[in-house]
Amino acid sequence: MARRGQFKPGQSGNPRGKPKGARHKATLAALELLDGEAEALTRKAVDLALEGDTTALRLCLERIAPPARMRPCRSLDPR
């Protein structure tokens, strides 16, 4: 009989791995670079969107109302 895997379902293969919530070095560097600039960047994106920049508009709208995820379809048959 062939074994399906070495670990039981729900058992991590690396229990001492990276902790939940740990951030990648590139993410930390980007956050440090943008530190204190979020308000100015947000204002600029909104201004560009209001001027008709479609990319800036899409960016702003996606932050206000993120794209809907696929939802399971409910049957119209009331059985």
List keywords for this structure.
mainly alpha; flat; 79 residues; 3 helices; single chain
Distance between the termini: 43 Å
Dominant shape: flat
Radius of gyration: 22 Å
* SSE run: HHH
| Percent range of helical residues | 40-55%
Structural class: mainly alpha
Largest sheet: none
State the total count of DSSP E strands.
0
Overall average residue pLDDT: 82
Give unreliable regions as ranges: none
Number of separate helices: 3
Percentage of residues in DSSP E strands: under 5%
Description of the molecule:
It is a single chain. The protein has 79 residues and is mainly α. Helix content is 43%, strand content 0%. The protein is built from three helices and no strands. It has helices at 25-34, 38-50, 54-64. The longest helix is centred in the middle third of the chain and has 13 residues, at 38-50.
Q: Topology, pairings included?
A:
Elements: H1 25-34, H2 38-50, H3 54-64
Short note summarizing the structure:
Helix content is about 45%, strand content about 0%.
